[in-house]
Design goal:
The complex is a heterodimer. By secondary structure, chain A is α+β, with helices and mostly antiparallel strands. Chain A is built from 4 helices and 9 strands; from the N terminus they run E-H-E-E-H-E-E-H-E-E-H-E-E. In chain A, strand 2 and strand 3 form a beta hairpin. By secondary structure, chain B is of the alpha+beta class. Chain B has a single domain, classed as Alpha-Beta Complex (Peptide Deformylase), CATH 3.90.45.10. Classes of the chains: A alpha+beta, B alpha+beta. The structure holds zinc ion.
Amino acid sequence: MSSWYLLTLVGKDRPGIVAGVTTALYKMGANLGEASMVQLGGNFTIMVLAQYKGTEKELSEFILPVAKKFDLRLHIDSVLEPKHQTSLPDVRITVYGADRSGIVAEATTALANAGLNILNLESDVGGGPNSIYILIIEGTADKGIDALQKVLDDLARDKKLETRLSPIDTLIG
Amino acid sequence: MAILDILVYPDPRLKQISDPVTKFDSALKDFIRDLNETMLAGPGCVGIAAPQVGYFDRIVIVDLSSKPKNPNHGKLVLVNPVIVEASGSNIGREGCLSVPDYTGNIARAKKITLTAQDEEGNEHSYQMKGFEARVVQHEIDHLDGLLFLDRLVCRRSELFPRQNYAE
Ligand SMILES: [Zn+2]
């Protein structure tokens, strides 16, 4: 019986990381599940679910050489068999404003109190010297959309943030 | 009446391009009845295209009568549908009877003008926007051998919603 592992690899970005890591996993007989591989600043981050017949130690021994080659830090967690898209987001929220500390903490705390369960959050900084902080959140509105809209209106007024909420109506057809 | 079997990806027939309907006869009406029943049997399903049941004629049904919050025409049978005009762009989440257990974000035109025939062969023209326009674009894609998987957008590409510039 094979087990599932969540591998995290992080390091300075350079060409070939994804190909190198996934080829090593493929060669050792691991089967990949969902993954997030993204550049953050000048760093590259990989989080990938993998199904593998061996132990955590064996997995680590196989992957360490390629991690070393690309100067990546490796972390492995043993996890339960993943389920696909267990909850579907029903709301998408955009928040942006002049960059300052506390935007993410303020917005997510207020939204959590209003029943938002975050499934995916991405944030970015843009806008040159007067930088803008941008947050895009997808999640489920466990206390309804109106509760979230009220919180976003408060954030816009009290914290000088631009906020937008769009319901996600998933089409099946 | 019968519920028809749904083709599921990677069935290569989902990539086939469907032919225009030329005969508006009782066989067409019987098929449309079965196609409608098949759509209604799909949980939460708001549209279906003939090739999803292995019938490669340009027929789709959309039915948004369960979505009164979105402006729509209710149930429509669209034979030989053609999008003659499209504008704007919107990202929304889509799933498909032919691609179980997966949904993804897809960019579609916000507004469309559509011509289509009904099951008697009469020509109609429709203006649609938002969710209804999205459903029709999803179903017409099936007639051209395209799945929503062919139009997935990267999650991060949403960060700067460009539809604001397109208006
Ligand atoms: Zn479909």
